[in-house]
Structures are given as structure tokens and as C-alpha cells.
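Reminder to self: C-alpha cells first, then the designed residues, so the page reads top to bottom the way the pipeline ran.
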């Protein structure tokens, strides 16, 4: 379960207990540009140990990190200081993953965010993701580029083109079914086929198509009300023998119904797991 499915105000330990309560195997920790979440990268040794001790005692874990803070510090930025900050936060996230026992890091596939894309922004991104991958390899923690709500990494094909320039077993793909499906030019099944050998985790999320008249909807689309062909995608994944995790990606509402929403999401995913993976 994605951490943001629960209110930010809840203590981390309570979020872990809720993850266990609703029968998820692990929680995906968020490292976004929010100052409180960014500060996790600087947790001291005692803080990290106390979290590990709690997870061990309660038999629940943080399985992966969602590092979306590169929206603010993109690796392809024209500003050198911004690029260096982006590299630094990914390296810190790798160290945090090692401390917590997390096995994968989702890195957002943005060369730049809300800035013009150029040949230089792509070159900077490739140069700097290589630096991050070199560090990840030294720590034995894979980085996985997520299919995004952005054209740079909006498809698995685009990510594979990037990764051809950074050949490493420590750079993989994090497939988001919502983001992948929302781009109408993508054929989700064929895209999954192209990248199945490199997919480490999957965000299970609904979304609405990007159209000529609008930008589509990449988040907060209730399950079953968007355009993702979940049955088709899960059938393809089963045929290709995908046996990795699915992460419920959703965002807690302010109406106090987040636990009910988690149950609904769990059951929605569960029907497909039962159909294709049991």
C-alpha cells in the first residue's frame, strides 16, 4: 500500500499497522518535496533503527521508496545546483533504503518538470541517472523509472530508450497502469510485453485518457471509473509470468473515509489477483 493512501497526520508506525491490518505485504514510503517527507532522508541512525525494530516486532515492512521529490529537483534541469540536489536526494534515498531494508526505489521519470524539454535536458538526465545508478549498484539497491504523467517517460518504450543509454541491472522499470493507459497512443498490453523483463513493481491505479481537448486525469480517479483495462492488463501480466508486487496507489481524502477507501481498493485489486494469480 502506498503511504499516501493514509492521512499525512498519522504517525508512521500507525500507517504501518494499518498496512498490516488490511492484509498488505508492505508499505511504500513516500519521499516527495514536502519538507517533512524530505527530512526522512536525514534521519539519524537511532531513528532508522527504531523504525526497523518496530517493523520487525510487528512483522510488517517498508518494501520500497517512492522518490517523487525529483519533480522539484529534476535531473535534467538547466540549473546545475538543481541537478546536483536531485542527485544528492536519490543517493540519500538509496542509503535510507539500505537502512530500512527496502528493496526498490521508484524514481520519477522527469527530465524536467513544467519546463521546456530540450536535447540538453535529456542529455543531462541520462548523464545524471548514470551517476545515480552507479551509486545504487554499489549499494545493491535497484532504481526503477516509473511510467509517468509526462511524455518523457510516459511509456515503457520511452524508458527502454533511456535505459539503453545506461545499461545496468540496477536500472529497471516501475510500471504505473494508470499512467501507462492514460496516454491513448500507448497500447498498454504491448508496452507491458516490451518491458516485462525489467518491471520490478506495479502501481495499481485508475486514470482517464489524455485527449485532444484535455489533459486527462492521472490521480484520484475511483477504481472502475477510469479508462484502465485492468482485466486485460492483469491477463497480460499473468501470461508473461509477472510475479512481482502490486502497489495500491491512492491518496487519502479529508472526509474521514480513508479506511473504507482502502478496503474498496484492496478488494478491487483482490478480485484480479484471485482471478489471475492464485
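Designed residues (278 positions):
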Amino acid at each position: 500500500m502506498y503511504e499516501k493512501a493514509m492521512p499525512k497526520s498519522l504517525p508512521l508506525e500507525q500507517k504501518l499497522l494499518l498496512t498490516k491490518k488490511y492484509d498488505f505485504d508492505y508499505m511504500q514510503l513516500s519521499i516527495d518535496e514536502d519538507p517533512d517527507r524530505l527530512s526522512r532522508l536525514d534521519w539519524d541512525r537511532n531513528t532508522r533503527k527504531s523504525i526497523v525494530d518496530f517493523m520487525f516486532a510487528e512483522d510488517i515492512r517498508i518494501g520500497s521508496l517512492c522518490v517523487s521529490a525529483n519533480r522539484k529537483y529534476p535531473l535534467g534541469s538547466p540549473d546545475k545546483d538543481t541537478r546536483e540536489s536531485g542527485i544528492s536526494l536519490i543517493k540519500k534515498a538509496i542509503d535510507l533504503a539500505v537502512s530500512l531494508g527496502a528493496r526498490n526505489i521508484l524514481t520519477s521519470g522527469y527530465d524536467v518538470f513544467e519546463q521546456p524539454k530540450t536535447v540538453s535536458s535529456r542529455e543531462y538526465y541520462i548523464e545524471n541517472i548514470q551517476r545515480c545508478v552507479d551509486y545504487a549498484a554499489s549499494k545493491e539497491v535497484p532504481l526503477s523509472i516509473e511510467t509517468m504523467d509526462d511524455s518523457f517517460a510516459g511509456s515503457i518504450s520511452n524508458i527502454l530508450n533511456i535505459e539503453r543509454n545506461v545499461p545496468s541491472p540496477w536500472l529497471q522499470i516501475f510500471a504505473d497502469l494508470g499512467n501507462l493507459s492514460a496516454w491513448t497512443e500507448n497500447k498498454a498490453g504491448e508496452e507491458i510485453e516490451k518491458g516485462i523483463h525489467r518491471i520490478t513493481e506495479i502501481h495499481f491505479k485508475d486514470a482517464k485518457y489524455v485527449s485532444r481537448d484535455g489533459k486527462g486525469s492521472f490521480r484520484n480517479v475511483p477504481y472502475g471509473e477510469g479508462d484502465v483495462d485492468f482485466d486485460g492488463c492483469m491477463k497480460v501480466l499473468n501470461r508473461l509470468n509477472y510475479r512481482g508486487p502490486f502497489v495500491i496507489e491512492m491518496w487519502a481524502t479529508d472526509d474521514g473515509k480513508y479506511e473504507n477507501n482502502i478496503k474498496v481498493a484492496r478488494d478491487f485489486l483482490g478480485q484480479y489477483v484471485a482471478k489471475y494469480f492464485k
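The two ends are 20 Å apart (CA to CA).
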